[in-house]
Amino acid sequence: MLLPVTEADGFLLDIRYATADNLAGRPIYRRPVALLLPLARERLFRARDQAARLGLKLRLFDAFRPLEAQWALWHAVEDKRFVSDPRSGGVHPRGAAVDLSLADAASGALLPMGTGFDAVAAESAHGHPGVPAEDQRNRALLLGLMTAAGWDHYGLEWWHYQLPEARAFPPLSASAVPEGPI
Fold it and tell me: Which residues does the Swiss-Prot or TrEMBL record annotate as the active site (predicted)?
């Protein structure tokens, strides 16, 4: 069962795949919702609480991604290191991954991270030497918050985190998304 993560829960939502501002260049979700497995949601709330103690909020770009959407991204992205093969299920279609960044809690302004979300570039990797020191510190802060809350990271994407046990859950299609308001 997938559970919603909302702004009422203390997050900023910027679900990019419901807009044209993403790798596919077109909306691939009908609704801007963030859904996660209960375990992933619980761990995300832990990271939220830690970020709040620092005057920060988590801005979510993506969470559960139906297999149909994973296929759309697979076809849209040339560099396959930046998108999982839908035939293996990936981790977003399991409801066990999030794409996110840090924002100032008062203003909502994103902290600089050196690249934008979904930048298909070498500079998107954790620890890339071409990223300014302040942006590296912001990435390290996000990494620390997420790791302390029980998440694992993907080295090529500063924004991507997944449950270490993500592959224990089955991949899901769009039929897993509840209808109606979230």
Answer: 157 (proton donor/acceptor)
Helices (H), the chain: 38-53, 67-76, 133-148
From the candidates 123, 157, 165, 179, give the one annotated as an active-site residue. 157
Rounded Cα–Cα distance for residues 46 and 31 (Å)? 26
pTM: 0.94
Q: Is 126 annotated as a binding residue?
A: no
**Residues 116 and 23: beta-carbon distance below 8 Å:** no
d(CA 80, CA 85): 8
* Structural domains of the chain, with CATH: 3-176 (3.30.1380.10)
Does 99 show up as a binding residue in the annotation? yes
User: Is residue 14 part of an annotated ligand binding site?
Assistant: no
Q: Tokens in use for 66?
A: 């139906």
pLDDT digits (tens, 9 = 90+) for 25-39: 999 998 999 999 999
Task: Give residue 180's pLDDT.
Answer: 61
